[in-house]
Specification:
With 248 residues, this protein is an alpha/beta fold. 37% of the residues lie in helices and 8% in strands. It is built from 9 helices and 6 strands. It has a 4-stranded mixed β-sheet, sandwiched between helices. Strands 1-4 form a two-stranded parallel ribbon. Helix 3 packs across helix 4. The longest helix has 16 residues, at 68-83. 29% of the residues are buried.
């Protein structure tokens, strides 16, 4: 058993003792050293958190905005890559079984601290409209036209999905939220203290601002809305508004 644990430990730390080559890590969403999973819903201030959780090397899955189910399934890929078919003995009694690999992925998912951020849907819509990366719309159409066509939560994003609401990044197949902690971007500073407490000090994040657009009117989002556009956003993103108790 001790021999098997030694082989597994070495497999899980492939960068150690390897002087050449760039190490690979699974995805920005998962930091194995800190034992955390951060689901980066687009346009919720994720750049600051992602940079603080940054790992050395390059990701196997480069998309930074995976949802919680995609992360859950990718953990098996990570451990499969690290553990499958690694042995230095004969007979091969130190090779991890597929059952062991799947259980290892499941244990990590269940034990890692899973957190995310959400944002007021009305303010977020304005941020999507004024974004400088991805599909830039503010110079081509009016905000009213944008609201008329704003259907998915990642509209205009570099990495689009068909998620209707922000909460769709955070749920399992049955609509159950799988996160340990979800904070509102509007309450970011308070969330930093709560995250530190919930992780017993393991995860101490700093309040930093990155990837801001000085021309965006998101901080003054109310001034852009008419009754019609306000109601459009309320109807389209009703699930987020109801679950996270947002008001205009």
């Amino acid at each position: 058993m001790r021999k098997l644990k030694s082989v597994i430990w070495k497999a899980l730390h492939p960068q150690r003792g390897i002087p050449k080559g760039e190490p690979l890590f699974l995805n920005e969403a998962v930091n194995f050293e800190m034992e955390v999973i951060f689901i980066a819903v687009p346009k919720t201030g994720t750049t600051s958190i992602r940079r603080q959780l940054k790992q050395i090397g390059r990701p196997i899955i480069p998309n930074p905005h995976l949802d919680i189910l995609q992360v859950r399934e990718s953990l098996y890929l990570h451990y499969l890559r690290q553990l499958l078919g690694r042995t230095t003995t004969f007979p091969c009694d130190t090779v991890a079984t597929d059952e062991f690999i799947r259980n290892r992925a499941k244990e990590s998912f269940e034990s890692f601290f899973k957190f995310s951020a959400v944002r007021n849907p009305w303010a977020r819509a304005v941020s999507l409209y004024y974004r400088r990366e991805g599909i830039q719309t503010s110079g081509d159409i009016t905000f009213e036209d944008f609201c008329q066509n704003h259907v998915y939560a990642s509209d205009t994003c570099i990495h689009p999905t068909l998620h209707k609401n922000q909460i769709d990044w955070l749920c399992d197949e049955n609509g159950v939220v799988l996160m340990d902690y979800v904070y509102k971007l509007e309450e970011f500073d308070r969330a930093l203290n709560e995250i530190a407490e919930l992780t017993n000090g393991r995860l101490r994040l700093e309040s930093k601002t990155h990837n801001t657009n000085p021309t965006s009117l998101a901080p003054k989002y109310r001034s852009l809305y008419t009754d019609q556009t306000r109601n459009l956003i309320a109807k389209r993103f009703e699930k987020d508004i109801d679950y996270f108790k947002y008001t205009f």
